[in-house]
## 1
Amino acid sequence: MHAGEYRERLLPAWWVLALALGFIALIAIAYGAALGSGTGLSIFLAGTVIAIAVTWLSSPVIVADRAGLRVGRARLPRSAIGGLTILEPADFADLRHPKTAPTAFAMLRPSRSRRGVRIAVDDPQDPHPAWIVTSRRPEALVAALE
């Protein structure tokens, strides 16, 4: 990654994966009791691999570079990026409600971070007046976009 570039994967909080693994363990114990410990262990290992893969593959990636901003599959060219505002937890909570910004593009992961960035969109053709994006390091994201 070059200077002025930013990359972040919004993985869920640790407890989300722990909850999934607990559920997988319950299923593995039930099948292990009925069909044998080898079957239960196989189910637990396969379920764990699947849970980790799904968690990784379904976590959106935020990339800010010379081309602009990419959040998941959505792209915003650098020419359309307007004002940038770092959102602290109180601000972020206010903007998360659909009534506040019903047409804003939102990539929200409150289990990951209660902070984020609001990006004003300077493109009259774009149906979204702003993007609201969760980030663990909003200062670094803003610095990469400025």
Note: The chain is about 40% helix and 25% strand.
## 2
Amino acid sequence: MMNEMTVTRTSAADPHFKQLTEGLDRDLRVRYQPYLAKFDGFNQVDNSARVVIAYQEGQPVGCGCFRPTDDPATVEMKRMFVEPAARGLGVARQILQELEMWAIEEGYTGARLETGNRQPEAIALYQKSGYGPIDAYGPYVGLSTSVCLGKSLVL
């Protein structure tokens, strides 16, 4: 069991977020070569991103964020990652729940995301969390590796 697990809201400038997303990018390179070059540009986040970092005993073990979309009622979940040693312990679920609560607090009523077909653990997490298939959107239209999911955040 995890001890002293905390989830903290922060920004994209947080050095722990940068460190964790570097781990995410390494993981994606392994799973998606040669496709990754197409995805790299879509994975950038700016200062509009709301970032959550999970800490276990003071060490950063996972992250995620959301950003506004062209639909003023909907956010896009991005950059979800959990360090391999902390996987299977519910870290990603806690990060996702905190992101959803934050989005609701800011008045958003829906969330969407894109993950890849070589990330079955991510797809399972999102499905267990109430996300269902939606049409591919934006840069993911026509990408065979993309899995787009959405969820209502209305309580």
Note: The mean pLDDT is 90.
